[in-house]
Amino acid sequence: MIEEDVLLARFTTLGTGGPARWFSKPGNLDQLAAALEWAAERNVHVSVVGLGSNLLVADEGVDALVLRLAGELATAVAEGDRLLAGGGAPLAVCLHRVREASLGGFEFTCAIPGTVGGGVKMNAGAYGSDWSQILERALLVDADGAHWRTASELELSYRHSNLRPGQVVATVELRLVARPEAEIKSRVAELIAQRKSTQPTNKRTFGSVFKNPDHELGAGRILEECGLKQHRVGGAMISPMHANFIENAGDATSADALALMAEARRRAYERFGVELEHEVQLLGDLELPPL
Ligand SMILES: Cc1cc2nc3c(=O)[nH]c(=O)nc-3n(C[C@H](O)[C@H](O)[C@H](O)COP(=O)(O)OP(=O)(O)OC[C@H]3O[C@@H](n4cnc5c(N)ncnc54)[C@H](O)[C@@H]3O)c2cc1C
After folding, report:
1. Separation of 169 CA from ligand 1 center, angstroms?
2. From the alpha carbon of 199, which atom of ligand 1 is closest?
3. What's the alpha-carbon Rg for the chain, to the nearest Å?
4. Do 245 and 231 touch, CB atoms closer than 8 A?
5. pLDDT at 251
C-alpha cells in the first residue's frame, strides 16, 4: 500500500523532518518489488528509512517514495553460526536473538540504535568492530531486481558502503562465532555503561554528526576545542556531554540542526584547517554551504 504525505519526524531519533510525498511499509520481498515497480513506472525516487538514527530529513519533506521495511523484512532468526535478518530488523532484536543462540561478534552494536539496513549502508561500528567484520552477504533489491553482495563487494569502510540511492538492503546473512550467553551479557553491560558515561544516550540526537577526520583529534574534541559545547541555533544544541552530537533541546527543526552543522564546520575549518565531512545522512533538499 502506498500512503501519501506521511510525516517523517516520528521516524527519526532527532524528531524533526517533514512529510514523505509517498510512503510504504513493504512486509516481504514481493511487496518490496511491487513498491519499487510502482516508483519506477512513475519515475519517482526511492529512499529508505530504518530507525532514522543517523538521518536528518528536510522540514519541507521529501519528494520521493520513502520505504520502511516491516513484517518478514524486519525479523531475525539464528541458524547455526549465522543470523538471517531482514533489512528493517532493529539491532536490539538481532542482539537478543544472537545472545539467546550463544553467538558472539555482534556485541559492538549494543549502543547503536539502528536497523540492519542502516548498519550495512553506514558500515556502522563501535569499539573496534563494524559490519564489514560480520557481514557474509546482503540481498540488495532495486528496480532492476535482487542481487546478493558480499561485504567486500559492498566496499565497506569507515562509515561507508557503495550502496546507491534507491538500493534497498532487504535481508542479510551474518557470520558469528560461538560464545557463552553470560559472556555476551557481561560484555554488553560493560559497553553500555561505557557509552552512557561519554555520550548523551538519553537525548534526542542522530548520533555522530561528523566523521572523525584524518587528524590527531576526533571530531568531538575538535568541536569542543572550538568552544561549541552548548552552542545553539534555534532548538538545536551541541551536546554539553559530547560535541559531535546535536541534541533536540525542545523544538528544533532540521533547518536549525543544519545551520548548527554549518557553523560547527566553519569554526573547525578556521581553527584547525580541517574540512569535516558529515556522517549523518541528509534526506530531501538539504545541503551544507561550501567552506
Ligand atoms: C545515541 C546514538 C548512538 C549512535 N552510536 C553509533 C555508533 O556507535 N556507531 C555508529 O556507526 N553509528 C552510531 N549511531 C548512528 C546510527 O545509529 C547508525 O548509523 C545506524 O546504523 C543507522 O541505522 P538506521 O536504521 O537508524 O538508519 P537510518 O538513520 O534510518 O538511515 C541511515 C542511512 O541508511 C539508509 N538505510 C536505512 N535502511 C536501509 C535499507 N534497508 N536499505 C538501504 N539503505 C538503508 C538510509 O537511507 C540512510 O541513508 C548512533 C546514533 C544514535 C542516535
Report:
1. 13
2. 1
3. 19
4. no
5. 96
| Protein residue closest via CA to atom 8 of ligand 1 | 126
Q: Whose CA is nearest to atom 50 of ligand 1?
A: 207
The answer to whether the CB of 53 is under 6 A from ligand 1 is yes
How far away, in angstroms, is 173 Cα from ligand 1 center? 18
Cα dihedral: 197, 201, 203, 208 (round 10): 100
> Which are the catalytic amino acids?
159, 208, 279
CA distance 152 to 88: 22
C-alpha cell read off for 113? 540504535
Check if 111 has its Cβ closer than 6 Å to any atom of ligand 1. yes
Centre of ligand 1 from the C-alpha of residue 217, in Å = 23
Q: Whose CA is nearest to atom 21 of ligand 1?
A: 119
Q: What is the mean pLDDT of residues 146-157?
A: 97
Burial class (CB in 10 A: 0-12, 13-18, 19+), 5: exposed
Are residues 49 and 67 in contact, defined by beta-carbon separation less than 8 angstroms?
yes
Cα–Cα distance, 155 to 150 (Å, whole number): 9
In order of 49, 87, 102, 194, the CA distances from 77 in angstroms are: 22, 13, 13, 28
Q: What φ, ψ does residue 193 adopt, rounded to 5°?
A: -65, -45
User: Smallest Cα–Cα separation from 114: which of 210, 11, 237, 20?
Assistant: 11
- What value, to the nearest 5°, has the Cα angle with vertex 165 and ends 152 and 29? 80
**Residue 65 contacts residue 82 (beta carbons within 8 Å):** no
Residues 14-68 have pLDDT tens digits of: 999 999 999 999 999 999 999 999 999 999 999 999 999 999 999 999 999 999 9
Task: Read off the pLDDT of residues 246-283 as tens digits, 9 standing for 90 and up.
Answer: 999 999 999 999 999 999 999 999 999 999 999 999 99
